[in-house]
Amino acid sequence: MAARWGLAARGVIYLLVGVLALRIAFGDNGEQADRGGALHALAKQPFGSALVWAVGVGLAGMALWRLSEAVFGAAGPDGRKTSKRLASAGRFVFYTVVAYSVLSFAAGEKGSGSSDKQSQDVTSRVMDLPAGRWLVGIGGIVIACAGVWIAFRAIQRKYHKHLKLSEMSPRIRKAVDVLGVGGGVARGAVFAVAGGFAVAAAVRYDPDKAKGIDDTLRTFSRTAAGPWLLVAVAVGLALFGLFSFAMARWRRV
């Protein structure tokens, strides 16, 4: 239950970020296209406070699920491998931080601002450490490589091994593949570009070159393709949100 609730909560965040990015592509700069913007948009809806709490609890459930995988092993024949357990432990830490930020927002805390400001602040603090410039550069490379890896695995449809394919009709499988491939490629592209900005910040020794999700997405609209590349990425992120809903329904946990 915690896993499925968590996957659905992740879907809500990505779907809203995709919608906000689409609005930016068409000239509406009202909300930040990141988790904070998504939470603000959700809070404005009827019963918005309850919805934000539900998302926060769901993400806490996601963290709990990943912790259980790290301790007891994940579903599947290779779920008890050390590498799988370590990956789940890393995801547990990540979703714990995300869940804390969402629950803090639900409790009324304003938070630390947009993802862009947070990225610049963190980059600046790390650069002040011994060998901080190298740490930022290595971190950026890791994030960029993770983005490429996410996109590549989506194209290969590696998520099939996690799905209860026997319970899905051929039509549903095709629909889920559209969501999984399109969403995974868009999500990977955002990670890869954000990692590239972190590397640029390290090379130029300028924390302001680091960008959060919102500014990374806005960068897509400044390319030769104009706002249409941002439209494509925004639609992809919304597709990943819908894919997360499908995973909440059919994933083996």
UniProtKB/TrEMBL annotation:
InterPro entries according to UniProt: DUF1206
Highest taxon above the source species: Bacteria
Pfam families, alphabetized: DUF1206
Signal peptide annotation: none
Keywords, comma-separated and alphabetical: Membrane, Transmembrane, Transmembrane helix
Residue ranges of coiled coil: none
Protein name as catalogued: Membrane protein
Organism: Wenjunlia tyrosinilytica
